[in-house]
Design a protein that fits this description.
twelve-stranded mixed beta sheet; six-stranded antiparallel beta sheet; 17 helices; disordered C terminus; alpha+beta
């Protein structure tokens, strides 16, 4: 009956590990260490510098409310502006081509309702007007009257078979577009693949929800607040909002935006972008024949870009303490011939006769574009596991590369290394080697015992005989003091105990042979079993046993060729 100790030892008494081959080669070793250091550096950088244990998601805009305010009324009674575009408007004249030019007569301070246009989130702040007043009439009598009045209107009269018109055109600058105020509120929403969601606004606490149907819960305190920072394209902060009660600032908190949002005059937003309306825009020159002069941004208009970049405290883009989220608003400008048109009727033209009057307005000015980007990070167990797996793979890669090089790319050296690394198992050769080593071991045992062949198995080696041989073997270590008498006694007792496998207080020849063959691939008992013709062999064993070995064993006795003496 199999004992419990035997079962436990078979189940838990050993583990399987790969056999290693140590190659003594300085250059290969140096290459291996260099690759190891590179892999270790990459693992450290990828893990800690990039915080690879986090899962990163791009936030989306949740809300963006935008509104404009016209310039404050000028109650001084003086000129609406002292800028060059008002005192010397003609100095801005620009000849676009031989057939078209931009000529300016003066500047005007439009009513507050015409200081800007807004439709939803689309806004336009005009910097120039080209107004064309049109009076239309039909019939001889009405056209005669219109022709008489047209000079007084400073217009140009023209008649056709269908009727007549009186047109007056004027191109003017808007006096104070820089003083139009741009205000807005903004917010974000982000959803992680794990089901966690978060949303926040500049004027309220953030809210979080877990799972697909989790309810929103408010995050109170600074961890639930978002700070908004206005920056230039070079990353430096830029204050705006000088017209607001708190004055100009680059950092806007929940308290700052509570009443009137984030606000700044267009002049301030343009300063953050590093431009002014009176800057020239040579990239907008026409290049047409007859062109004279260089257009200025006050003439052409521009696009003001607000890029909102959201980051939470766990993300590397977040670098301000005390707030759960931060939004960096980068201000930039795209110079462009940025135009818009609209028509205002003083008398709606008759559908049949065309009689009526209206104003056609062609404007150049400033529009606003808003873009959202950013990143929110959150610790994720799956990402952590991926880091560990990737680290193990990367740290093992140098060994794989050097092993492939050593075994396949070094010519004769690789041939030798591969022979040492790959053990060839030939059962027939193994049997020959085992037989030779058994004979040698029997001779050694006979010498140790000092008796004839008949007494070897019966008497065996006594513990004292083994102890004396071991003492002789370790005499140098005992003389130098490395191995004391007590330590030697423990060593000898352990060796004698393990050699006495039959537990008969002596080491028999069978015990001795089993010990000398303990590290062999083929043990003596395997050799005996293989040549035991009474042992039942499985079909697969028979099918995959080499023909040479089958002939050696012999299925029938008449196939076994005896060896002559």
């Amino acid at each position: 009956m199999v004992s419990a100790d035997t079962i436990m030892d078979a189940a838990f008494g050993s583990i399987m590990v790969p056999k290693m081959l140590a190659i003594k080669n300085f250059r290969l070793g140096l290459l291996f260490r260099i690759l190891q250091i590179a892999a270790l550096f990459w693992v450290i950088y990828n893990t800690f510098a990039l915080k690879a244990w986090n899962i990163v998601t791009i936030p989306l805009p949740d809300t963006f409310e935008l509104w404009l305010k016209p310039p404050a009324p000028d109650t001084s009674g003086a000129s609406t502006s002292t800028g060059t575009h008002c005192t010397d408007a003609s100095s801005y004249n620009y000849i676009y081509s031989a057939t078209y030019s931009y000529n300016y007569s003066r500047c005007v301070d439009p009513p507050s309702g015409e200081a800007f246009d807004k439709l939803g989130k689309t806004v336009f702040v005009p910097t120039t007007f080209q107004d064309t007043m049109v009076w239309q009439a039909s019939g001889a009598a009405d056209c005669t009257t219109l022709q008489a009045l047209c000079p007084g209107k400073l217009g140009v009269f023209a008649s056709t078979a269908a009727g007549c018109t009186c047109k007056r055109s004027d191109r003017v600058f808007v006096s104070r577009p820089e003083e139009v105020a741009l205000h807005f509120d903004h917010g974000y929403v982000v959803s992680f693949p794990t089901g966690h969601k978060e949303r926040g606004r500049d004027k309220s606490f953030a809210e979080v929800a877990g799972g697909l149907r989790g309810s929103w819960e408010e995050k109170e305190g600074k961890d639930g607040e978002m700070a908004t920072i206005i920056i230039r394209t070079d990353g430096t902060r830029c204050p705006v909002g000088a017209h607001m009660p708190g004055g100009a600032k680059s950092l806007w908190t929940k308290e700052d935006v509570a009443d009137d949002g984030i606000g700044g005059l267009f002049g301030e937003w343009m300063d953050c972008a590093g431009v002014k309306l009176d800057d020239t825009a040579p990239e907008l020159s026409s290049g047409n024949p007859g062109e004279v002069g260089v257009p200025k941004l006050r003439m052409t208009g521009m696009e003001v870009n607000l890029e909102l970049s959201y980051h939470n405290a766990a993300d590397e883009g977040h670098d301000i303490e005390g707030y759960g989220a931060v939004c960096y608003i980068t201000v930039s400008v795209n110079p462009a011939w940025n135009s818009a048109t609209k028509v205002a009727y003083s008398e709606i033209p008759d559908l049949d006769t065309g009689a009526g009057s209206f104003r056609e307005r062609h404007m150049y000015g400033i529009s606003v574009n808003v873009q959202t980007k950013g990143s929110f990070a959150r610790f994720d167990y799956n990402s952590l596991i991926s880091i560990i797996v990737n680290a193990v793979v990367l740290l093992a890669l140098p060994g794989t590369i050097v092993r492939l090089l050593a075994l396949n790319g070094l010519g004769l050296l690789s041939k030798i290394y591969k022979r040492a690394q790959a053990q060839v198992v030939d059962i027939g050769s193994q049997f020959t080697g085992v037989a030779a080593r058994i004979v040698s071991s029997v001779a050694v045992f006979q010498v140790l015992h000092g008796s004839g062949d008949d007494a070897l198995e019966k008497q065996g080696l006594t513990p004292d005989q083994i102890r004396d041989r071991l003492r002789a073997a370790f005499s140098k270590e005992m003389e130098s003091g490395v191995l004391s008498e007590d330590e030697f006694k423990v060593l000898a007792d352990a060796a004698i105990r393990d050699l006495d496998a039959s537990k008969c207080s002596k080491v028999s020849l069978s015990d001795f042979l089993a010990a000398t063959a303990s590290q062999e691939s083929v043990e003596p008992k395997d050799m005996v079993s293989f040549f035991d013709r009474d042992r039942k062999r499985g079909l697969l064993e028979i099918a995959f046993t080499d023909s040479r070995l089958q002939r050696s064993v012999g299925v029938r006795s008449d196939k076994v060729q005896p060896v002559e003496d």
